[in-house]
Amino acid sequence: MAQGLRVGVLGATGAVGTEILGILAQRSLPIADLRLLASPRSAGQTLTFAGTPLPVQAVSAETLQGLDLILASAGASVSRQWLPIAVQAGAIAIDNSSAYRMEANVPLVVPEVNPQDLKDHQGIIANPNCTTILMTVALWPLHQVRPIRRIIAATYQSASGAGAKAMQELKDQALDILKGNPPRTAAFPYPLAFNLFPHNSPLNDQGYCQEEMKMINETRKIFHTPDLRLSATCVRVPVLRAHSEALNVEFFEPFPLAEARNLLQQAAGVAFVEDWERNYFPMPLEATGKDPVFVGRLRQDLSEPNALELWLCGDQIRKGAALNAVQIAESLIAQGLI
Amino acid sequence: MAQGLRVGVLGATGAVGTEILGILAQRSLPIADLRLLASPRSAGQTLTFAGTPLPVQAVSAETLQGLDLILASAGASVSRQWLPIAVQAGAIAIDNSSAYRMEANVPLVVPEVNPQDLKDHQGIIANPNCTTILMTVALWPLHQVRPIRRIIAATYQSASGAGAKAMQELKDQALDILKGNPPRTAAFPYPLAFNLFPHNSPLNDQGYCQEEMKMINETRKIFHTPDLRLSATCVRVPVLRAHSEALNVEFFEPFPLAEARNLLQQAAGVAFVEDWERNYFPMPLEATGKDPVFVGRLRQDLSEPNALELWLCGDQIRKGAALNAVQIAESLIAQGLI
């Protein structure tokens, strides 16, 4: 650590991987050596880190040797295959996939919320789902002061959650439709341009999709509230890379609006954006490429004295994935855990 | 009435007005004479009704004489100015604007829900707000059987709610952005293409926008439940002309899912669309140009035994405005009120 960390990035060529490289170049994580890893298919490419070209190597037992830290964003099956090997070889793994999130011995961490959970890690640390990260950053400052009883969430999720191909598909579809041609679909089952649809992740027997169950189960784990009541409707919208969420949040007692506003204005990781005169609140286009979770339109719910309504936007690739992973690494250092 | 109705369409050149003409041509309202009215600015244009060119006349005390029925969709101030004159001259007015909706002596009607309220009309009948129409068509079949305690709504509203100019603006902005140019805004305060934002109607002191208050107040009036608890977050999304809504609906007792599904499958004005295998549910692109309110993704709320979650889409210009107005006229005839 004195000489800096030997860091691997697995899935370096993907949407989240390339964002991780950009964030590592901007921030102050001490890096002695950076190794870019990807599937054999992507190996041989060259990426740029802080102005320096670096080769992308195929992930293997050999290329996973000699790392202190590995940041993985190559999907659940890749993580399951390679992260135990990386940990065995001495690395701490921060995994952006869903592979390990709900395992009891794996901390699931949003650094603004539960950094102390990192102390219990056994090699693998999970980065939560993007919608969950954005919601927990916004609600933790309130939940700490007056516990939440129930959350009803409706999401407005961008194409980027399905990767770089989905973002390009949205743009191609928009152009198709504007030219009067039928939109082509590949990354998504249905056209997304000038359309929207319930989140296309697998549905369970209760009619909840995987994305909704992630919000429910991951929030409970991060908040250490296994009984938290939460329902969600997750929807894909034709936005490129920032998610939005409409949250109805019921507490066990009334939450004075001014107090809630004050807490959110001071909260770590939150940019509180409200201009009631201009009807100006967080928007995904303005959250794109930014670090904070943008929160606003905080209102007393007129239908329930104990509930507040709020609205948020956050960059899905950045705080929803890459930035949170890098912040976990920073928190490990700050806590002397690496 | 034996020879058919003398019908005026006020605001004939607008997005809703032209849709009304199309619907009148498709359906069986007995029309003896059709008069197209608009502002002096639009007068002189020619529109086509059922293959026949018709002139657009400037609205005036003279051109409002001799009508049995007037369908108005020219905005609240135009309705306030001209509808009392039309009624004075003998017409029944069906007004698509918000001008008269909350007045005690004006029926606010969704024909699938409260057609009996038409009996009390005093000349003016109000067509509800689009989001309210879609929601009440979907929820009335349930509310009739087990009363609703509380609704939490999040909307995904298309550009068409702001008129034909807003629809064109969305397309122009999308092309601007795809070409790498900054999007131009005029109809909306912020870019809508590849973006979204809380509904741009005026905000009240409690932080609710006009659109949200319409959903609350109009639903209470239509359902005759002045104490119904309802909160809403209304959001503009980059979709051209169909609205979507995520509704969390709490009843006073548990509502068995199979019973709710059965009621919705048989409900007037509802097309129940669910294919859980394909993750296929209502989508705004598919609701466009169609008459029904498309309802699906009906689920037991995992956070509340007495609540259901459901999802709907409906054509904002059609059932959300023009079709509902024509159906009110049809209901007047069926009830012998005109």
TrEMBL record, chains A, B:
Pfam families: Semialdhyde_dh, Semialdhyde_dhC. It is an enzyme of class 1 (oxidoreductase). Its EC number is 1.2.1.11. The keyword NADP applies. The active site is at 130 (acyl-thioester intermediate), 243 (proton acceptor). Phosphate binds at residue 101. Pathway: Amino-acid biosynthesis; L-threonine biosynthesis; L-threonine from L-aspartate: step 2/5; Amino-acid biosynthesis; L-lysine biosynthesis via DAP pathway; (S)-tetrahydrodipicolinate from L-aspartate: step 2/4; Amino-acid biosynthesis; L-methionine biosynthesis via de novo pathway; L-homoserine from L-aspartate: step 2/3. Keywords: Amino-acid biosynthesis, Diaminopimelate biosynthesis, Lysine biosynthesis, Methionine biosynthesis, NADP, Oxidoreductase, Threonine biosynthesis. Substrate binds at residues 157, 236. GO terms for molecular function: aspartate-semialdehyde dehydrogenase activity; NAD binding; NADP binding; protein dimerization activity. Gene3D superfamilies: Dihydrodipicolinate Reductase, domain 2, NAD(P)-binding Rossmann-like Domain. NADP(+) binds at residues 13-16, 41-42, 160-161, 316. It catalyses: L-aspartate 4-semialdehyde + phosphate + NADP(+) = 4-phospho-L-aspartate + NADPH + H(+). Residues 6-121 form the Semialdehyde dehydrogenase NAD-binding domain. GO terms for biological process: 'de novo' L-methionine biosynthetic process; diaminopimelate biosynthetic process; isoleucine biosynthetic process; lysine biosynthetic process via diaminopimelate; threonine biosynthetic process. Catalyzes the NADPH-dependent formation of L-aspartate-semialdehyde (L-ASA) by the reductive dephosphorylation of L-aspartyl-4-phosphate. Homodimer. Belongs to the aspartate-semialdehyde dehydrogenase family. This is Aspartate-semialdehyde dehydrogenase. It comes from Parathermosynechococcus lividus PCC 6715. The gene is asd.
